[in-house]
Design goal:
The protein is of the alpha+beta class. It has one domain: endopeptidase domain like (from Nostoc punctiforme) (endopeptidase fold (from Nostoc punctiforme), Alpha-Beta Complex), CATH 3.90.1720. Helix content is 49%, strand content 19%. A 6-stranded antiparallel sheet has the order 3-8-4-5-6-7. Helix 1 crosses helix 2. The longest helix has 67 residues. The radius of gyration is 30 Å and the shape is elongated. The termini are far apart.
Length: 185
């Protein structure tokens, strides 16, 4: 059986098309595999950095919580600095001294000038959070994470509150980072 030249050309073009298609698929698969491997290598490094960040942040939070449990329920007393009563800046000073061996000034007015300023959405455990409630010139606490902070409340003594609650969120003023940052570069 004789093939016509047109059929032979069509068959040849068809085979070339298949070969080109297969070559493109092989090349695309090779590139995708390389990208996945590269991304996997990067994400492994990222996971290690994230894990180290969480470990350090959890360690800071744990130290703060240990101090909180020592002070929990101690009543608020303006100017107080001991177990008979403590105010917000005295509590923050005591926690930083005992948990981190860092000496902070005694007053909120001086504490707000320590470290570096951080925005609300960049808060990390250990950051100082400041408020300006209507019945008090200034108030300070220590950020724990998940919008929580520890402080010496006028009404509840040493306690944990949420920044995003109606009251504290409304009176949030600023935050300062005194401890080294825990976020990876």
């Amino acid at each position: 059986m004789n093939e016509s030249p047109i059929c032979s050309i069509r068959l040849s073009l068809f085979i070339r098309g298949i070969i080109i298609t297969l070559a493109v698929q092989v090349l695309a698969t090779a590139c995708a595999t390389h990208q996945k491997h590269h991304a996997s290598a990067n994400s492994t490094g990222d996971r290690v950095a994230i894990s180290a960040h969480h470990s350090r942040a959890n360690n800071i939070e744990q130290r703060i919580l240990e101090e909180y449990h020592r002070w929990k329920g101690i009543r608020h007393q303006l100017g107080g600095a001991g177990s008979q009563g403590i105010d917000c800046s005295g509590f923050v000073k005591a926690v930083y001294r005992d948990a981190f061996n860092i000496s902070l000034p005694r007053t909120t007015k001086a504490q707000v000038r320590q470290g570096k300023s951080v925005s609300l959405n960049e808060l990390e455990p250990g950051d100082l959070v400041f408020f300006k409630p209507p019945d008090y010139p200034r108030h300070v606490g220590i950020f724990l994470g998940r919008s929580q902070f520890v402080h010496a409340s006028k009404s509840r003594g040493v306690t944990i509150s949420k920044i995003d609650a109606c009251y504290w969120g409304k009176y949030y003023w600023t935050a300062r980072r005194v401890l080294p940052a825990t976020k990876s570069p």
